[in-house]
Each structure stands twice: as structure tokens, then as C-alpha cells.
Write a structure and sequence with these properties.
Largest sheet: 6 strands, mixed
Low-confidence stretches: none
Mean pLDDT: 89
CATH superfamily of the largest domain: P-loop containing nucleotide triphosphate hydrolases
Radius of gyration: 17 Å
Number of helices: 9
Number of domains: 2
Distance between the termini: 33 Å
Strand order of the largest sheet: 6-7-8-3-9-10
Shape: globular
Number of strands: 10
CATH architecture of the largest domain: 3-Layer(aba) Sandwich
Structural class: alpha/beta
């Protein structure tokens, strides 16, 4: 991990919907190759932070840099061209497409570079052998855990500087959560920069180097995961209930 280079830097972000602010003066960062968790209760504003990074929510104040580029005013489709990609809550696969076609959608920006496209596809299949096994099946026929693998694979196919995941454990069985945790650790070992939104403190502690805690739209804590007890009881008791 290069601790002198930011993949993500947010300064004084203020954003919301309509007339109402959801996040207030949020500042955070992720170093190159670092995995960072953003924790907090429902309604804390975690997803709004992710959507602001992706250009899906227009913020009222503050700046966002990804890999040295100021994306504060960039449209979402420009940010999605290699700067950031997201696994949204609920996965949101294309249900009528095959697993492989869902992955192809993620790699559309590489359609002029078949060598790179197939290299990325190989990385996905290497990380998720089950995805390769079911590559011709409709995405809707897969289990929840397998669908989450496809969603992460689709994000990988974009080959972004920053990977964003919104509640990836939601609705998954314990074994599927374990598999996903191993996959995220593997991505981190490969030097990927990750911002993980989660309510499961144990998962965030397994995967992340640092964590931020968001409550009522404001950051209330920042810690190295090495400073937190293994089950995160102190964080749960203090902020998450």
C-alpha cells in the first residue's frame, strides 16, 4: 500500500435529495491499495456518500478526487470510465441476460481492446470459479451468493481505480458471506482500492484496513481496524445499537 497516494479523497462533502441534506461536511480518504469501511446505522447517509462519488447525487458543497482527478462536477458516465465502479445494494444484475453477458456489460469500456477484456474476464473466473461454471446461465437462476459474485465480477470488468460496494452481505447466507469476504481480501491483496459500506462490523473488520463511522450524516469516528476488538463490540455499543 502506497501511503503517499490517495485513490479517493473527499473534502467537506454536503449532499442530499431535493431540499434536504443527508450528509454534512464529510471528509474521508482511501490510500492507493487500501480497503476502507464506512459503517453506520440505517439512514446514516452511507449510500448517499457512494452515490455522490459516482456522480449520481449532485452535492451542494465539497470536492471529490479519484486517482488524482477532480470528479466533483463530472457526469456519472465519465466517472464510470475507469475512475470508479460500484456494486449497488441488491446487486441489480440484468436478469434476462446470461452471467457472461452481465460481465460483458461491466467491460464495455474495453470493447476496443479484446486482449484487456479477456484478461479481465480471466481474473473474474480465477477469483470466482462458480461464475465461469454458470457463465451461460441466466443471472436470475443463480443463488444470492452466486449473484453477488457476478455483481463483483461485473465491477472488476470495469477495471476501476476505486471499487465501491454497498451492503454486499445483505441477504446472503453465512457461507456466502465468508466466500465474499475471501474475494474482497483477494482484491485487496491484488492492490485494489476499496470503499466498503456495511452494517456487519465483523465483515468490515475482516476486510478493511481502516473504518469510518457515519451517524446522522456526519462522521463520528475513524479507526484502524487493528485498534478495534475482533467482534467490534465497542463500535456496535457506541454507534450501531
Amino acid at each position: 500500500m502506497n501511503e503517499h497516494t490517495y485513490t479517493l479523497e473527499i473534502r467537506s462533502l454536503r449532499a442530499g435529495y431535493g431540499r434536504y441534506d443527508v450528509v454534512h461536511d464529510v471528509s474521508l480518504h482511501a490510500f492507493a491499495g487500501e480497503s476502507v469501511g464506512l459503517l453506520g446505522p440505517n439512514g446514516a447517509g452511507k449510500t448517499t456518500v457512494l452515490r455522490s462519488i459516482m456522480g449520481l447525487v449532485r452535492h451542494r458543497r465539497g470536492q471529490i478526487w479519484i486517482a488524482g482527478s477532480d470528479v466533483s462536477r463530472l457526469p456519472a458516465h465519465r466517472i464510470a470510465k475507469g475512475l470508479a465502479a460500484m456494486v449497488p445494494e441488491g446487486r441489480r444484475l440484468f436478469p434476462n441476460l446470461s452471467v457472461e453477458d452481465n460481465l460483458r456489460v461491466g467491460g464495455l469500456r474495453h470493447r476496443g481492446d479484446p486482449v484487456r477484456f479477456h484478461s479481465l474476464l480471466g481474473e473474474v473466473f480465477d477469483l470466482f470459479p462458480a461464475v465461469e461454471l454458470h457463465r451461460k446461465r441466466p443471472a436470475t437462476t443463480l443463488s444470492g451468493g452466486e449473484q453477488q459474485m457476478v455483481a463483483i465480477g461485473r465491477m472488476m470488468m470495469n477495471d476501476p481505480a476505486l471499487m465501491l460496494l454497498d451492503e454486499p452481505s445483505l441477504g446472503l447466507a453465512p457461507l456466502a458471506v465468508q466466500s465474499m469476504s475471501k474475494a474482497l481480501l483477494s482484491l485487496k491483496e491484488r492492490g485494489r482500492s476499496i470503499l466498503l459500506v456495511e452494517q456487519r462490523v465483523d465483515l468490515a473488520l475482516q476486510v478493511c484496513d481502516r473504518i469510518y463511522v457515519l451517524s446522522d450524516g456526519a462522521l463520528v469516528d475513524e479507526k484502524l481496524t487493528s485498534e478495534v476488538d475482533d467482534e467490534g463490540r465497542s463500535l456496535i455499543d457506541a454507534y450501531l445499537g
